[in-house]
Amino acid sequence: MRRLTSPTGRAAWVLVAMMIASCAGSAAKSETAGPLSALRHNVDPGVGASHQAAATLVDLLPNAKAGDGTALSDSVVVGQLADVAPGDGFVESGEGPTPGRPSATRTSFSDAHASWRTLRLTVSVTSVLAGPRFASVELDWPLLGSARQGEDADRIGRELRSLGRVLVISQAVPAGAEYAGLKRQIPDRQHGLGVVGSDGALSFPLIAGDSGTTAAAWMGGVDTLAELRAAAAGPARRRDS
Amino acid sequence: MSMSTGIVRRHRRVVVAAFVILVGAGAVPAHASNFSGANGGVGCHVNVADNKVHSIWYHQVTAATRQAVSWSRSHNYDPTVVDTVTEDARDRLTDVIAMDADYEGTTCGRTWMPRPTGAGLIGMVICQSLSGRRCNQFHMMFDNDFMGPQPSANENALACHELGHTVGLMHVTSGCLVTGGGTSSSLREHDRRHLSYYQS
Hints:
The complex is a heterodimer of chains A (241) and B (200).
Chain A: H1 2-5, H2 7-31, H3 37-42, E1 48-52, E2 64-65, E3 75-92, E4 104-108, E5 116-130, E6 136-144, H4 153-161, E7 165-172, E8 184-185, H5 189-192, E9 193-196, E10 202-203, H6 215-219, H7 225-233, E11 237-238
Parallel strand pairs in A: 2-11
Antiparallel strand pairs in A: 3-4, 3-5, 3-7, 5-6, 7-8, 7-9, 9-10
Chain B: H1 3-27, E1 53-59, H2 63-77, E2 83-86, E3 96-101, E4 106-107, E5 110-111, E6 120-131, E7 134-143, H3 152-166, H4 189-194
Helix pairs in contact in B: 2-3
Protein backbone atom coordinates (compact mmCIF):
# COMPACT_ATOMS: atom_id res chain seq x y z
CA MET A 1 0.00 0.00 0.00
CA ARG A 2 2.88 2.33 0.74
CA ARG A 3 3.90 2.40 -2.91
CA LEU A 4 0.48 3.60 -4.01
CA THR A 5 0.10 6.21 -1.30
CA SER A 6 3.63 7.67 -1.44
CA PRO A 7 3.62 11.11 -3.17
CA THR A 8 6.74 10.15 -5.11
CA GLY A 9 5.20 6.88 -6.16
CA ARG A 10 1.97 8.54 -7.26
CA ALA A 11 3.95 11.00 -9.39
CA ALA A 12 5.81 8.12 -10.97
CA TRP A 13 2.68 6.21 -11.90
CA VAL A 14 0.95 9.35 -13.13
CA LEU A 15 3.86 9.98 -15.47
CA VAL A 16 3.91 6.38 -16.64
CA ALA A 17 0.16 6.55 -17.22
CA MET A 18 0.64 9.75 -19.23
CA MET A 19 3.27 8.05 -21.37
CA ILE A 20 1.04 5.04 -22.00
CA ALA A 21 -1.90 7.28 -22.82
CA SER A 22 0.30 9.34 -25.12
CA CYS A 23 1.49 6.28 -26.99
CA ALA A 24 -2.00 4.83 -27.18
CA GLY A 25 -3.29 8.13 -28.50
CA SER A 26 -0.69 8.18 -31.25
CA ALA A 27 -1.50 4.66 -32.32
CA ALA A 28 -5.21 5.36 -32.41
CA LYS A 29 -4.60 8.55 -34.39
CA SER A 30 -2.62 6.77 -37.06
CA GLU A 31 -5.27 4.09 -37.46
CA THR A 32 -8.10 6.58 -37.83
CA ALA A 33 -6.19 9.35 -39.54
CA GLY A 34 -9.08 10.31 -41.75
CA PRO A 35 -11.10 8.56 -44.39
CA LEU A 36 -8.83 9.63 -47.27
CA SER A 37 -5.47 9.59 -45.52
CA ALA A 38 -3.94 6.84 -47.67
CA LEU A 39 -5.11 8.55 -50.84
CA ARG A 40 -3.79 11.94 -49.73
CA HIS A 41 -0.44 10.38 -48.92
CA ASN A 42 -0.51 8.54 -52.23
CA VAL A 43 -0.54 11.76 -54.26
CA ASP A 44 2.64 12.99 -52.49
CA PRO A 45 4.22 9.92 -50.94
CA GLY A 46 7.74 11.08 -50.13
CA VAL A 47 9.08 10.83 -53.65
CA GLY A 48 12.06 13.01 -54.48
CA ALA A 49 10.19 14.78 -57.25
CA SER A 50 9.10 18.25 -58.24
CA HIS A 51 6.66 19.21 -60.92
CA GLN A 52 5.26 22.17 -62.76
CA ALA A 53 1.49 22.54 -62.58
CA ALA A 54 -1.41 24.87 -63.29
CA ALA A 55 -2.09 27.45 -60.59
CA THR A 56 -5.88 27.44 -60.87
CA LEU A 57 -8.68 25.12 -61.93
CA VAL A 58 -9.55 27.08 -65.06
CA ASP A 59 -5.91 26.96 -66.17
CA LEU A 60 -6.10 23.17 -66.17
CA LEU A 61 -9.09 23.06 -68.56
CA PRO A 62 -8.62 22.07 -72.23
CA ASN A 63 -9.58 25.55 -73.46
CA ALA A 64 -6.80 27.23 -71.46
CA LYS A 65 -3.91 27.53 -73.91
CA ALA A 66 -0.30 28.51 -73.51
CA GLY A 67 1.37 30.81 -76.02
CA ASP A 68 2.18 27.81 -78.23
CA GLY A 69 -1.48 26.74 -78.28
CA THR A 70 -1.08 23.74 -75.99
CA ALA A 71 -3.30 22.83 -73.04
CA LEU A 72 -2.63 20.84 -69.90
CA SER A 73 -5.61 18.49 -70.33
CA ASP A 74 -7.87 17.23 -73.11
CA SER A 75 -10.86 15.85 -71.23
CA VAL A 76 -13.15 16.91 -68.39
CA VAL A 77 -15.85 14.46 -67.34
CA VAL A 78 -18.12 13.68 -64.40
CA GLY A 79 -18.88 10.10 -63.47
CA GLN A 80 -18.68 7.24 -61.02
CA LEU A 81 -15.72 5.01 -60.38
CA ALA A 82 -16.99 1.74 -61.82
CA ASP A 83 -13.90 -0.42 -61.37
CA VAL A 84 -10.47 -0.44 -59.70
CA ALA A 85 -8.21 -3.22 -60.92
CA PRO A 86 -4.50 -4.07 -60.66
CA GLY A 87 -2.53 -2.63 -63.57
CA ASP A 88 1.20 -3.22 -64.07
CA GLY A 89 4.39 -3.04 -62.04
CA PHE A 90 7.53 -1.14 -63.08
CA VAL A 91 11.18 -1.45 -62.05
CA GLU A 92 13.09 1.83 -62.32
CA SER A 93 16.57 1.97 -63.82
CA GLY A 94 17.20 5.40 -62.28
CA GLU A 95 18.45 6.81 -65.58
CA GLY A 96 15.49 8.93 -66.61
CA PRO A 97 13.55 8.19 -69.77
CA THR A 98 14.51 9.77 -73.06
CA PRO A 99 13.01 9.15 -76.49
CA GLY A 100 13.44 5.49 -77.30
CA ARG A 101 14.89 4.70 -73.89
CA PRO A 102 12.39 4.16 -71.10
CA SER A 103 13.49 4.50 -67.49
CA ALA A 104 11.40 1.61 -66.23
CA THR A 105 10.97 -2.02 -67.16
CA ARG A 106 7.39 -3.21 -67.16
CA THR A 107 6.63 -6.18 -64.96
CA SER A 108 3.65 -7.64 -63.15
CA PHE A 109 1.63 -5.78 -60.56
CA SER A 110 2.61 -8.36 -57.95
CA ASP A 111 6.37 -8.33 -58.69
CA ALA A 112 8.16 -7.98 -55.35
CA HIS A 113 10.90 -5.91 -57.03
CA ALA A 114 8.59 -3.29 -58.53
CA SER A 115 9.55 0.34 -57.84
CA TRP A 116 5.98 1.43 -58.53
CA ARG A 117 2.70 -0.02 -59.77
CA THR A 118 -0.52 1.18 -61.29
CA LEU A 119 -4.15 0.73 -60.48
CA ARG A 120 -6.38 0.81 -63.55
CA LEU A 121 -9.46 2.89 -62.85
CA THR A 122 -12.59 2.81 -64.98
CA VAL A 123 -14.84 5.82 -64.65
CA SER A 124 -18.37 5.43 -65.97
CA VAL A 125 -19.06 8.84 -67.50
CA THR A 126 -22.38 10.56 -66.83
CA SER A 127 -21.51 13.99 -68.21
CA VAL A 128 -18.84 15.39 -70.55
CA LEU A 129 -17.81 18.98 -69.87
CA ALA A 130 -15.02 19.13 -72.44
CA GLY A 131 -13.18 16.85 -74.82
CA PRO A 132 -14.14 13.54 -76.46
CA ARG A 133 -17.61 12.07 -75.81
CA PHE A 134 -16.35 9.22 -73.65
CA ALA A 135 -18.85 6.70 -72.28
CA SER A 136 -16.17 5.54 -69.90
CA VAL A 137 -12.61 6.59 -69.17
CA GLU A 138 -9.73 4.26 -68.23
CA LEU A 139 -7.02 5.85 -66.12
CA ASP A 140 -3.74 4.67 -64.67
CA TRP A 141 -3.24 5.60 -61.03
CA PRO A 142 0.35 5.17 -59.72
CA LEU A 143 1.22 3.58 -56.38
CA LEU A 144 4.70 3.65 -54.92
CA GLY A 145 6.63 0.49 -54.12
CA SER A 146 5.92 -3.17 -54.64
CA ALA A 147 2.92 -5.17 -53.57
CA ARG A 148 5.00 -6.47 -50.66
CA GLN A 149 6.60 -3.23 -49.47
CA GLY A 150 4.61 -0.50 -51.10
CA GLU A 151 1.44 1.47 -50.67
CA ASP A 152 -1.73 -0.37 -49.73
CA ALA A 153 -3.50 -0.87 -53.05
CA ASP A 154 -6.66 -2.24 -51.47
CA ARG A 155 -7.04 0.71 -49.12
CA ILE A 156 -6.33 3.27 -51.83
CA GLY A 157 -8.86 1.52 -54.07
CA ARG A 158 -11.47 1.66 -51.30
CA GLU A 159 -10.80 5.33 -50.68
CA LEU A 160 -11.08 6.10 -54.40
CA ARG A 161 -14.43 4.30 -54.55
CA SER A 162 -15.65 6.22 -51.50
CA LEU A 163 -15.38 9.52 -53.37
CA GLY A 164 -18.73 8.95 -55.07
CA ARG A 165 -19.49 11.25 -57.99
CA VAL A 166 -16.16 12.48 -59.30
CA LEU A 167 -14.85 15.17 -61.60
CA VAL A 168 -11.94 13.89 -63.69
CA ILE A 169 -9.60 16.20 -65.62
CA SER A 170 -7.32 13.98 -67.69
CA GLN A 171 -5.08 13.84 -70.71
CA ALA A 172 -3.77 11.22 -73.09
CA VAL A 173 -0.34 10.05 -71.95
CA PRO A 174 2.29 12.03 -73.88
CA ALA A 175 4.30 10.28 -76.57
CA GLY A 176 7.28 8.67 -74.93
CA ALA A 177 5.37 7.33 -71.96
CA GLU A 178 3.35 4.87 -74.00
CA TYR A 179 6.02 2.21 -73.59
CA ALA A 180 4.65 1.65 -70.14
CA GLY A 181 1.27 0.66 -71.51
CA LEU A 182 -0.25 3.75 -69.97
CA LYS A 183 -3.02 5.34 -72.00
CA ARG A 184 -4.61 8.16 -70.06
CA GLN A 185 -3.79 9.83 -66.79
CA ILE A 186 -4.70 12.65 -64.49
CA PRO A 187 -1.70 14.93 -64.94
CA ASP A 188 -1.97 16.50 -61.50
CA ARG A 189 -3.82 14.12 -59.21
CA GLN A 190 -4.18 16.49 -56.24
CA HIS A 191 -5.97 18.99 -58.45
CA GLY A 192 -7.38 16.92 -61.28
CA LEU A 193 -9.66 14.65 -59.27
CA GLY A 194 -12.59 16.41 -57.62
CA VAL A 195 -15.85 15.43 -55.98
CA VAL A 196 -19.27 16.65 -57.12
CA GLY A 197 -21.80 16.93 -54.30
CA SER A 198 -25.49 16.16 -54.71
CA ASP A 199 -26.12 19.92 -54.89
CA GLY A 200 -23.49 20.37 -57.59
CA ALA A 201 -20.87 21.82 -55.25
CA LEU A 202 -17.29 21.01 -56.18
CA SER A 203 -14.57 20.00 -53.75
CA PHE A 204 -10.98 18.77 -54.10
CA PRO A 205 -10.34 16.54 -51.09
CA LEU A 206 -6.88 15.42 -52.24
CA ILE A 207 -5.50 18.93 -51.84
CA ALA A 208 -4.02 18.40 -48.40
CA GLY A 209 -2.95 21.11 -46.02
CA ASP A 210 0.70 20.31 -46.65
CA SER A 211 0.59 20.93 -50.37
CA GLY A 212 1.45 24.61 -50.09
CA THR A 213 -1.90 25.69 -51.49
CA THR A 214 -5.55 25.48 -50.55
CA ALA A 215 -8.57 24.11 -52.36
CA ALA A 216 -10.21 27.55 -52.30
CA ALA A 217 -7.19 29.17 -53.96
CA TRP A 218 -7.10 26.40 -56.54
CA MET A 219 -10.81 26.72 -57.36
CA GLY A 220 -10.55 30.51 -57.69
CA GLY A 221 -14.29 31.09 -57.33
CA VAL A 222 -15.39 28.20 -59.56
CA ASP A 223 -17.37 26.46 -56.84
CA THR A 224 -20.07 24.50 -58.65
CA LEU A 225 -20.41 22.09 -61.52
CA ALA A 226 -22.50 24.65 -63.40
CA GLU A 227 -19.75 27.26 -63.10
CA LEU A 228 -17.12 24.78 -64.22
CA ARG A 229 -19.27 23.67 -67.17
CA ALA A 230 -19.57 27.30 -68.28
CA ALA A 231 -15.81 27.86 -67.91
CA ALA A 232 -15.00 24.68 -69.84
CA ALA A 233 -17.43 25.52 -72.65
CA GLY A 234 -16.07 29.03 -73.16
CA PRO A 235 -13.80 30.04 -76.03
CA ALA A 236 -10.09 29.30 -75.90
CA ARG A 237 -8.29 31.62 -73.54
CA ARG A 238 -4.68 32.28 -72.68
CA ARG A 239 -3.69 30.54 -69.48
CA ASP A 240 -1.78 32.39 -66.84
CA SER A 241 0.20 29.47 -65.44
CA MET B 1 18.97 0.57 3.34
CA SER B 2 15.42 -0.08 4.56
CA MET B 3 12.81 -1.54 2.25
CA SER B 4 10.80 1.70 2.26
CA THR B 5 13.83 3.82 1.34
CA GLY B 6 14.61 1.43 -1.50
CA ILE B 7 11.06 1.67 -2.82
CA VAL B 8 11.16 5.50 -2.73
CA ARG B 9 14.47 5.52 -4.61
CA ARG B 10 13.03 3.15 -7.17
CA HIS B 11 10.09 5.49 -7.60
CA ARG B 12 12.48 8.40 -8.06
CA ARG B 13 14.25 6.50 -10.80
CA VAL B 14 10.89 5.87 -12.48
CA VAL B 15 10.06 9.59 -12.20
CA VAL B 16 13.40 10.60 -13.67
CA ALA B 17 13.19 8.01 -16.47
CA ALA B 18 9.63 9.00 -17.32
CA PHE B 19 10.57 12.70 -17.31
CA VAL B 20 13.54 12.10 -19.59
CA ILE B 21 11.41 10.09 -22.02
CA LEU B 22 8.61 12.67 -22.09
CA VAL B 23 10.97 15.64 -22.47
CA GLY B 24 13.01 13.76 -25.02
CA ALA B 25 9.92 12.91 -27.03
CA GLY B 26 8.79 16.51 -26.85
CA ALA B 27 12.12 17.74 -28.16
CA VAL B 28 11.71 15.79 -31.38
CA PRO B 29 8.43 16.79 -33.02
CA ALA B 30 8.28 13.73 -35.25
CA HIS B 31 4.87 14.64 -36.59
CA ALA B 32 6.27 17.90 -37.98
CA SER B 33 9.34 16.27 -39.45
CA ASN B 34 10.18 16.44 -43.11
CA PHE B 35 13.28 14.31 -42.69
CA SER B 36 13.11 10.84 -44.17
CA GLY B 37 15.64 9.18 -41.89
CA ALA B 38 17.50 6.14 -43.14
CA ASN B 39 14.91 3.81 -44.61
CA GLY B 40 17.09 1.18 -46.22
CA GLY B 41 15.45 1.54 -49.60
CA VAL B 42 16.64 2.13 -53.12
CA GLY B 43 14.30 3.55 -55.74
CA CYS B 44 11.70 6.26 -55.61
CA HIS B 45 11.46 6.93 -51.85
CA VAL B 46 13.58 9.68 -50.32
CA ASN B 47 16.48 8.30 -48.26
CA VAL B 48 19.33 9.98 -46.34
CA ALA B 49 22.91 10.29 -47.61
CA ASP B 50 25.54 7.99 -46.14
CA ASN B 51 27.84 10.75 -44.89
CA LYS B 52 28.17 14.52 -44.61
CA VAL B 53 30.71 14.88 -47.40
CA HIS B 54 28.40 15.06 -50.37
CA SER B 55 30.35 14.43 -53.58
CA ILE B 56 28.70 15.40 -56.85
CA TRP B 57 29.63 14.37 -60.36
CA TYR B 58 28.10 16.27 -63.28
CA HIS B 59 27.21 13.85 -66.05
CA GLN B 60 27.22 15.92 -69.26
CA VAL B 61 24.85 18.51 -67.83
CA THR B 62 23.94 21.82 -69.44
CA ALA B 63 25.39 25.09 -68.20
CA ALA B 64 22.00 25.99 -66.69
CA THR B 65 21.89 22.87 -64.54
CA ARG B 66 25.53 23.13 -63.50
CA GLN B 67 25.12 26.78 -62.51
CA ALA B 68 21.92 26.15 -60.55
CA VAL B 69 23.38 23.19 -58.65
CA SER B 70 26.55 25.13 -57.97
CA TRP B 71 24.54 28.12 -56.74
CA SER B 72 22.47 25.97 -54.41
CA ARG B 73 25.51 24.15 -53.04
CA SER B 74 27.18 27.39 -52.02
CA HIS B 75 24.05 29.24 -50.85
CA ASN B 76 21.97 26.45 -49.29
CA TYR B 77 24.04 23.44 -48.28
CA ASP B 78 27.69 24.37 -47.75
CA PRO B 79 26.70 26.80 -44.95
CA THR B 80 25.26 23.77 -43.09
CA VAL B 81 27.11 20.75 -41.71
CA VAL B 82 26.89 19.17 -45.15
CA ASP B 83 30.05 19.67 -47.23
CA THR B 84 29.48 19.42 -50.95
CA VAL B 85 32.40 18.71 -53.27
CA THR B 86 32.60 18.00 -56.98
CA GLU B 87 34.35 15.07 -58.59
CA ASP B 88 36.11 14.82 -61.94
CA ALA B 89 35.05 11.22 -62.42
CA ARG B 90 32.42 8.99 -60.96
CA ASP B 91 33.10 5.89 -58.96
CA ARG B 92 31.10 3.74 -56.61
CA LEU B 93 31.63 6.24 -53.77
CA THR B 94 30.25 9.23 -55.68
CA ASP B 95 27.23 10.42 -53.69
CA VAL B 96 25.24 12.26 -56.36
CA ILE B 97 25.30 11.90 -60.13
CA ALA B 98 23.70 15.05 -61.51
CA MET B 99 22.22 14.68 -64.98
CA ASP B 100 19.80 16.45 -67.25
CA ALA B 101 17.99 15.69 -70.51
CA ASP B 102 14.74 16.29 -72.30
CA TYR B 103 13.15 13.47 -70.37
CA GLU B 104 9.98 12.10 -71.96
CA GLY B 105 8.06 9.39 -70.27
CA THR B 106 7.25 8.29 -66.77
CA THR B 107 9.51 7.86 -63.75
CA CYS B 108 8.21 6.57 -60.43
CA GLY B 109 4.68 6.98 -61.77
CA ARG B 110 5.17 10.66 -62.60
CA THR B 111 5.20 11.83 -66.20
CA TRP B 112 7.89 14.28 -67.25
CA MET B 113 6.86 17.66 -68.55
CA PRO B 114 6.62 17.19 -72.32
CA ARG B 115 7.46 20.77 -73.34
CA PRO B 116 8.41 24.06 -71.63
CA THR B 117 4.78 25.24 -71.59
CA GLY B 118 3.46 21.94 -70.27
CA ALA B 119 2.95 20.45 -66.83
CA GLY B 120 4.58 17.47 -65.21
CA LEU B 121 7.75 16.23 -63.63
CA ILE B 122 10.74 18.61 -63.81
CA GLY B 123 13.14 17.04 -61.33
CA MET B 124 13.60 13.68 -59.62
CA VAL B 125 16.01 11.97 -57.24
CA ILE B 126 16.37 8.20 -57.10
CA CYS B 127 18.55 6.24 -54.71
CA GLN B 128 20.62 3.79 -56.73
CA SER B 129 22.62 1.90 -54.11
CA LEU B 130 22.81 1.55 -50.35
CA SER B 131 25.47 1.76 -47.69
CA GLY B 132 23.81 -0.01 -44.82
CA ARG B 133 20.36 1.57 -44.56
CA ARG B 134 21.50 4.90 -46.01
CA CYS B 135 21.82 5.82 -49.65
CA ASN B 136 25.31 5.43 -51.08
CA GLN B 137 24.59 6.93 -54.49
CA PHE B 138 21.75 9.06 -55.87
CA HIS B 139 20.79 9.95 -59.41
CA MET B 140 19.55 13.54 -59.52
CA MET B 141 17.72 14.36 -62.77
CA PHE B 142 16.63 17.72 -64.18
CA ASP B 143 14.38 18.21 -67.21
CA ASN B 144 15.76 20.51 -69.89
CA ASP B 145 12.23 21.68 -70.65
CA PHE B 146 12.64 23.54 -67.35
CA MET B 147 16.38 24.05 -66.94
CA GLY B 148 17.30 26.60 -69.56
CA PRO B 149 13.93 28.11 -70.50
CA GLN B 150 13.24 29.24 -66.92
CA PRO B 151 14.66 32.31 -65.15
CA SER B 152 17.77 31.37 -63.20
CA ALA B 153 16.00 32.08 -59.90
CA ASN B 154 13.53 29.26 -60.66
CA GLU B 155 16.37 26.96 -61.71
CA ASN B 156 18.15 27.69 -58.43
CA ALA B 157 14.94 26.87 -56.57
CA LEU B 158 14.68 23.52 -58.33
CA ALA B 159 18.32 22.72 -57.60
CA CYS B 160 17.77 23.55 -53.91
CA HIS B 161 14.71 21.24 -53.94
CA GLU B 162 16.39 18.24 -55.55
CA LEU B 163 19.64 18.58 -53.59
CA GLY B 164 17.46 18.59 -50.48
CA HIS B 165 16.07 15.19 -51.44
CA THR B 166 19.63 13.87 -51.72
CA VAL B 167 20.23 14.69 -48.06
CA GLY B 168 16.92 13.19 -46.93
CA LEU B 169 14.68 16.26 -46.83
CA MET B 170 11.06 15.74 -47.81
CA HIS B 171 8.26 18.04 -48.94
CA VAL B 172 6.93 20.86 -46.78
CA THR B 173 4.67 23.88 -47.19
CA SER B 174 7.31 26.58 -47.63
CA GLY B 175 10.91 27.07 -48.60
CA CYS B 176 12.52 25.32 -51.54
CA LEU B 177 11.24 21.89 -50.45
CA VAL B 178 7.64 22.97 -50.96
CA THR B 179 5.45 20.24 -52.41
CA GLY B 180 5.72 20.23 -56.16
CA GLY B 181 8.52 22.76 -56.38
CA GLY B 182 7.93 26.50 -56.35
CA THR B 183 9.97 29.63 -56.58
CA SER B 184 11.68 29.79 -53.19
CA SER B 185 15.38 29.02 -53.36
CA SER B 186 15.91 28.95 -49.60
CA LEU B 187 16.01 26.24 -46.98
CA ARG B 188 13.96 26.91 -43.87
CA GLU B 189 15.66 26.95 -40.48
CA HIS B 190 13.68 23.77 -39.73
CA ASP B 191 15.30 22.07 -42.76
CA ARG B 192 18.77 23.20 -41.69
CA ARG B 193 18.21 21.76 -38.23
CA HIS B 194 17.42 18.38 -39.77
CA LEU B 195 20.85 18.40 -41.39
CA SER B 196 22.47 18.22 -37.95
CA TYR B 197 21.77 14.49 -38.48
CA TYR B 198 25.08 14.49 -40.37
CA GLN B 199 27.01 16.06 -37.50
CA SER B 200 27.91 12.71 -35.94
